[in-house]
Amino acid sequence: MTGEDDVALLDALRGGSEQAFNRLIDRHQQAVRLFLRGVISPADAEDVAQETFLAAWTHARSFKGLSTVRAWLLSIAWRKAKGQQRWSFRGRRRDTAYHELVASDPFASGDQLAQLAVHQALAQLSTEQRAAVMLCLGCGLSHTEAAEALDMPLGTVKSHVLRGRDRLRDALGER
Protein backbone atom coordinates (compact mmCIF):
# COMPACT_ATOMS: atom_id res chain seq x y z
CA MET A 1 0.00 0.00 0.00
CA THR A 2 1.21 3.49 -0.78
CA GLY A 3 0.61 6.86 0.81
CA GLU A 4 -2.05 7.45 -1.84
CA ASP A 5 -3.81 4.29 -0.68
CA ASP A 6 -3.76 5.67 2.88
CA VAL A 7 -5.39 8.89 1.70
CA ALA A 8 -8.06 6.83 -0.09
CA LEU A 9 -8.65 4.88 3.15
CA LEU A 10 -8.92 8.14 5.06
CA ASP A 11 -11.42 9.47 2.52
CA ALA A 12 -13.51 6.32 2.97
CA LEU A 13 -13.15 6.69 6.73
CA ARG A 14 -14.53 10.21 6.50
CA GLY A 15 -17.55 8.65 4.82
CA GLY A 16 -18.00 6.33 7.80
CA SER A 17 -16.44 3.16 6.41
CA GLU A 18 -15.56 0.78 9.24
CA GLN A 19 -13.72 -1.45 6.77
CA ALA A 20 -11.46 1.46 5.81
CA PHE A 21 -10.89 2.22 9.49
CA ASN A 22 -9.92 -1.39 10.19
CA ARG A 23 -7.52 -1.40 7.24
CA LEU A 24 -5.96 1.85 8.44
CA ILE A 25 -5.46 0.33 11.90
CA ASP A 26 -3.96 -2.86 10.43
CA ARG A 27 -1.60 -0.79 8.31
CA HIS A 28 -0.34 1.57 11.03
CA GLN A 29 -0.94 0.08 14.47
CA GLN A 30 2.50 -1.54 14.69
CA ALA A 31 4.27 1.78 14.01
CA VAL A 32 2.04 3.67 16.45
CA ARG A 33 2.54 1.09 19.21
CA LEU A 34 6.28 0.86 18.64
CA PHE A 35 6.58 4.65 18.85
CA LEU A 36 4.45 4.85 21.98
CA ARG A 37 6.34 2.04 23.76
CA GLY A 38 9.48 4.10 23.23
CA VAL A 39 8.09 7.25 24.84
CA ILE A 40 5.72 5.98 27.59
CA SER A 41 5.29 2.81 29.60
CA PRO A 42 4.28 -0.28 27.63
CA ALA A 43 1.05 -0.63 29.63
CA ASP A 44 0.06 2.95 28.88
CA ALA A 45 1.18 2.60 25.26
CA GLU A 46 -1.58 0.10 24.52
CA ASP A 47 -4.27 2.40 25.90
CA VAL A 48 -2.86 5.46 24.14
CA ALA A 49 -2.66 3.56 20.84
CA GLN A 50 -6.37 2.81 21.10
CA GLU A 51 -7.07 6.44 21.94
CA THR A 52 -4.99 7.48 18.93
CA PHE A 53 -7.06 5.45 16.50
CA LEU A 54 -10.29 6.56 18.13
CA ALA A 55 -9.18 10.17 17.68
CA ALA A 56 -8.34 9.42 14.05
CA TRP A 57 -11.85 8.03 13.56
CA THR A 58 -13.55 11.03 15.15
CA HIS A 59 -11.24 13.69 13.66
CA ALA A 60 -10.52 12.25 10.22
CA ARG A 61 -11.58 15.55 8.68
CA SER A 62 -8.65 17.30 10.36
CA PHE A 63 -6.14 15.54 8.07
CA LYS A 64 -5.01 18.25 5.65
CA GLY A 65 -2.70 16.16 3.48
CA LEU A 66 0.39 18.15 4.49
CA SER A 67 2.10 14.96 5.66
CA THR A 68 1.61 11.23 5.29
CA VAL A 69 -1.28 9.56 7.07
CA ARG A 70 1.26 7.68 9.21
CA ALA A 71 2.91 10.96 10.28
CA TRP A 72 -0.53 12.37 11.09
CA LEU A 73 -1.37 9.30 13.20
CA LEU A 74 1.98 9.52 14.98
CA SER A 75 1.38 13.20 15.73
CA ILE A 76 -1.97 12.25 17.29
CA ALA A 77 -0.17 9.53 19.27
CA TRP A 78 2.41 12.04 20.48
CA ARG A 79 -0.25 14.47 21.73
CA LYS A 80 -2.11 11.61 23.43
CA ALA A 81 1.16 10.39 25.03
CA LYS A 82 1.91 13.87 26.40
CA GLY A 83 -1.63 14.04 27.78
CA GLN A 84 -1.17 10.63 29.39
CA GLN A 85 2.06 11.77 31.02
CA ARG A 86 0.37 14.92 32.40
CA TRP A 87 -2.52 12.81 33.68
CA SER A 88 -0.12 10.33 35.33
CA PHE A 89 1.87 13.16 36.95
CA ARG A 90 -1.30 14.77 38.28
CA GLY A 91 -2.51 11.39 39.51
CA ARG A 92 0.73 10.78 41.40
CA ARG A 93 0.53 14.29 42.87
CA ARG A 94 -3.10 13.68 43.91
CA ASP A 95 -2.15 10.32 45.44
CA THR A 96 0.67 11.93 47.42
CA ALA A 97 -1.60 14.71 48.64
CA TYR A 98 -4.28 12.16 49.52
CA HIS A 99 -1.85 10.03 51.54
CA GLU A 100 -0.62 13.12 53.39
CA LEU A 101 -4.23 14.09 54.10
CA VAL A 102 -5.10 10.60 55.32
CA ALA A 103 -2.13 10.66 57.67
CA SER A 104 -3.57 13.76 59.35
CA ASP A 105 -7.23 12.78 58.96
CA PRO A 106 -9.17 12.35 62.20
CA PHE A 107 -11.32 9.78 60.36
CA ALA A 108 -8.28 7.64 59.70
CA SER A 109 -6.83 7.80 63.20
CA GLY A 110 -6.48 4.56 65.09
CA ASP A 111 -8.90 5.81 67.74
CA GLN A 112 -12.22 4.22 66.76
CA LEU A 113 -14.17 6.23 69.35
CA ALA A 114 -12.79 9.51 68.00
CA GLN A 115 -13.71 8.47 64.46
CA LEU A 116 -17.23 7.57 65.53
CA ALA A 117 -17.66 10.86 67.39
CA VAL A 118 -16.51 12.89 64.37
CA HIS A 119 -18.81 10.95 62.02
CA GLN A 120 -21.76 11.41 64.37
CA ALA A 121 -21.03 15.12 64.75
CA LEU A 122 -20.79 15.58 60.98
CA ALA A 123 -24.06 13.71 60.49
CA GLN A 124 -25.79 16.42 62.54
CA LEU A 125 -24.85 19.09 59.99
CA SER A 126 -26.87 19.87 56.90
CA THR A 127 -25.48 18.51 53.66
CA GLU A 128 -24.32 21.98 52.58
CA GLN A 129 -22.63 22.68 55.94
CA ARG A 130 -20.98 19.27 55.93
CA ALA A 131 -19.66 19.83 52.39
CA ALA A 132 -18.31 23.30 53.23
CA VAL A 133 -16.70 22.08 56.46
CA MET A 134 -15.12 19.07 54.77
CA LEU A 135 -13.72 21.13 51.89
CA CYS A 136 -12.33 23.93 54.06
CA LEU A 137 -11.35 22.12 57.24
CA GLY A 138 -10.90 18.57 56.01
CA CYS A 139 -9.37 19.16 52.58
CA GLY A 140 -7.68 22.49 53.19
CA LEU A 141 -9.43 24.49 50.47
CA SER A 142 -9.82 28.23 50.91
CA HIS A 143 -13.32 29.61 51.31
CA THR A 144 -13.08 30.93 47.75
CA GLU A 145 -12.07 27.53 46.36
CA ALA A 146 -14.85 25.82 48.30
CA ALA A 147 -17.38 28.37 47.03
CA GLU A 148 -16.31 27.60 43.48
CA ALA A 149 -16.39 23.83 44.04
CA LEU A 150 -19.83 23.96 45.64
CA ASP A 151 -21.17 26.63 43.28
CA MET A 152 -22.24 28.72 46.27
CA PRO A 153 -21.72 32.39 47.12
CA LEU A 154 -18.56 33.03 49.13
CA GLY A 155 -20.51 34.45 52.08
CA THR A 156 -22.69 31.34 52.24
CA VAL A 157 -19.64 29.08 52.38
CA LYS A 158 -18.07 31.21 55.13
CA SER A 159 -21.32 31.02 57.14
CA HIS A 160 -21.58 27.26 56.64
CA VAL A 161 -17.99 26.74 57.80
CA LEU A 162 -18.35 29.01 60.82
CA ARG A 163 -21.66 27.51 61.95
CA GLY A 164 -20.60 23.99 61.08
CA ARG A 165 -17.35 24.30 63.04
CA ASP A 166 -19.26 25.63 66.06
CA ARG A 167 -21.77 22.77 65.86
CA LEU A 168 -18.94 20.25 65.57
CA ARG A 169 -17.20 21.71 68.62
CA ASP A 170 -20.44 21.52 70.60
CA ALA A 171 -21.10 17.96 69.49
CA LEU A 172 -17.56 16.89 70.33
CA GLY A 173 -17.56 18.74 73.67
CA GLU A 174 -14.63 20.97 72.75
CA ARG A 175 -16.09 24.22 74.09
Helices and strands in order, then pairings?
Elements (H helix, E strand, L loop, with lengths): L2 H12 L3 H22 L2 H17 L10 H36 L7 H12 L3 H12 L4 H8 L3 H19 L3
Helix pairs in contact: 1-2, 2-3, 2-4, 3-4, 5-8, 6-7, 6-8, 7-8
CATH superfamily of the largest domain: RNA polymerase sigma factor, region 2, helix turn helix motif
What portion of residues is helical?
over 70%
Could you say which overall geometry the principal axes of the C-alpha atoms support?
elongated
Mean pLDDT: 78
* CATH topology name of the largest domain: Rna Polymerase Sigma Factor, Chain: A
Category by helix and strand content: mainly alpha
How many distinct folded domains? 2
Describe the structure.
The protein has about 180 residues and is mostly helical. Helix 3 packs across helix 4. The protein contains 8 helices and no strands. About 80% of the residues lie in helices and about 0% in strands. The longest helix is centred in the middle third of the chain and has 36 residues. The protein has 2 domains: about 100 residues, Rna Polymerase Sigma Factor, Chain: A (Orthogonal Bundle), CATH 1.10.1740; about 60 residues, Winged helix-like DNA-binding domain superfamily/Winged helix DNA-binding domain (Arc Repressor Mutant, subunit A, Orthogonal Bundle). The model has no long low-confidence stretch (mean pLDDT about 80).
